[in-house]
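## Example record

The block below lists the input lines for one assembly entry, exactly as stored, with component labels intact.
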Amino acid sequence: MNPALLRRGLVYALLSLAAFISVFPFYWMIIGATNASADIIRGKTTPGGALFANAATFFATVDAPRIFMNSAIIAVVGTALTLVVSSLAGYGFEMFRSRIREKLFALLLLLLSIPFAAMMVPLFVMFSQAKLVNTFVAAILPTVASIFIIFYFRQATKAFPSELRDAAKIDGLNEWQIFLYVYMPVMRSTYAAATIIVFMANWNNYLWPLIVLQTADNKTITLILSALTSAYTPDYGMLLFGTVLATLPTLVIFFLLQRRFVEGMLGAVK
Amino acid sequence: MAQSGLARSERINGWLFVMPALVLLGLFMIYPIVWSLWMSFQVGKGMNLSFGGFANIQRLTKDPVFIRALINTFTFFIVQVPIMITLALLFAVALNDSTLRFRGLFRTAIFLPCVTSLIAYSTIFKSMFAVDGIINQTLMALHLIASPISWLGDPFWAKVTIIIAITWRWTGYNMIFYLAALQNIDRSIYEAARIDGVPAWARFRYLTIPMLKPVILFTTVVSTIGTLQLFDEVFNLTGGTGGPSDSTVTLSLYIYNLTFKFMPSFGYSATVSWVIVLVVAILSFLQFLVARDRKVKSS
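Predicted structure tokens for the full assembly:
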């Protein structure tokens, strides 16, 4: 057999296997939402008739509207604040150079490698002293300034044509108007990619909300699902139904912004 | 006069743009980090802390759960990161071939696991890896195993399950970084090498790998940090215990338990968290050294 053709076949086989393994758990999740827990544990891979029963159990166990609203508030407010604060900083670090700020930026990159575990205890003490434990403010604030996203915006700003800024200055715009009316529209791919990354991180955030959101009515869907999973005999039908609902928002955002996401990533790595 | 006014407004604007981020990072990152370093030298329960010198560090050396957690974290790191980086590179190189059909489809499929939350996929994996579950059934049908494996009940297989789960979740994410970097490589270099008769594996070894080195280094460092902070998956796959019998407990999980489950000992848990900081610092430094060393050899 032709070796080039054989290699080609191997590549397709490898990629198909990888794609199958990547997608199968999604299929499993959706099928699982329609099956009873006992059938799921027995490995049934065909749709069943328990969808409505699972939905009923889920909505009876979880105050879904409230919990999803909590998740949405935290994720949307957190994402919007992160994008504003971090893009301002990324733009500022790149456009206005000073020796002190370059040193500060280098320090931030060093901090990037410090794990969250090292801040978690003092952060919790800080918020309990400020009497903010169990509030959305506490859940959102520490996530707003993201070094990774600042770095990402600074890298992307390197590709922002400085002629545009000069032209806008001649037209009489001040620095803030330039940022709002020139930079933000031009960089929309970068914003789209950052939106995907930050929204997913916020929607799926677990450890900090687990520590700081303590009463059931303030918890996010991620926390509630986790609590239900660790039951001694979890009801997988109901759980996988909840998992489908919890995964939908990130899936929708991903597919809506996917094209821009790839563009945005390419822009940042260049 | 006008010139100095302009320079001053540049200076002020330069600070104003970065100020919100700097204030927030100072408050919610730098201050807690410095505080936790201070805490790590204190002993006592709850907020009744007193200076204990190196007492916490001595306690570390005699704490069997800490040593277990350290070994487990290293096991996850040493086994999982190389597997994931290799797979991600392999997929990226395969998908970078512009004559390949269904590229977009493959790319989206392999990236898809990243959109699931750590909790969602823990639930999915927990149900798939049940004793009578789909994974055991498939393996038995293929005659790969004779009797079902107790995936989450056995100390060894529990580690394997966690490694499989993390690899599933993060390979596509790393692949996207490599794909982006590969698309910036000038194609004519490959054309020239092919015309000169350089075989495919040699093109991969001597062209692709060296050119991707900065990205590989970046993703390796990020993955190292991620693995050393491992928490969500272990917490959820093992029902918050790191079991069976501490066989999957990680450093982050132990810190969480020390702070929020057992009698809170903030000082000691801060000490454990600084072990992670030190390990990350040392490993990142070593990775940079290795990367530089290779460059010297190849030139």
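Chain A has a mean pLDDT of 87. Residues 63-269 of chain A form a domain with the MetI-like fold fold (CATH 1.10.3720.10).
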